[in-house]
Design brief:
This protein is of the alpha+beta class. The protein has two helices and 13 strands.
Length: about 240
Amino acid sequence: MKNGKIAPPGYVLPNRPRWQGGWNLRSFFGAVLAFTLVAGAATEWLALRLHNPIEMGKPIFRFGRTPVYQPFAALILWKHFAGNYTHSAPFGLYREQLNSEAATHDPAPYVFFCPDRRWPSMQGQPNYRDPMRTCPDGFSPLIKPVVAWPGDLVSVSAEGISVNGRLLKNSAPINRDSKGKQLRPFVPGEYRVGPKELWVVSSFSPRSFDSRYFGPIPLKSVHLWLRPLLVERAYHPTPAGGQER
């Protein structure tokens, strides 16, 4: 008997090489080392993209002018990111802008916000949001770019949304989505954005469900202010049709 098997008479089973089958200490530590190197590379990339945020702590050393952090420092930042898997905004990863008061208007920041189906402007609108307890009404939040700020003048018409006289691309409302559901565009007219309001319209997609239908959003509905970190660059319509969140 050899290698746990019974060999026939006159035949000797060969020894199995050490590297075949099962885990041993060498392979275990090799896997840990590979994982650590990948985590370290991801951390350094993230530190460069985010300009070495203070939450990552002090670097363990410097390679020239480049600070090098401990490999898993980036895990501390997980709560400052949001992913977008809808196509009414660029698909990909967004990072939180911690100082919302310093948010620049150009390029426009994105907001992760909670609409409420109880808003008068949401009455009778189709619901494209997933059930989720993140928002008070029991559905998922939306991610949209901010196009109008307090004091701006917004014009709503069949041609689309204009802000301070500039018509926004892909902002024209439609009356029915591609599945035949009725949409209710916001009442045409001119609106001065109030001190605690924002208008959110996605020029990325002509089928985005945004302020062209429900008008301004209250500032208190915003959960996160975001900037794109790693996102797609072009609009790709959803093959299944329907309105896009």
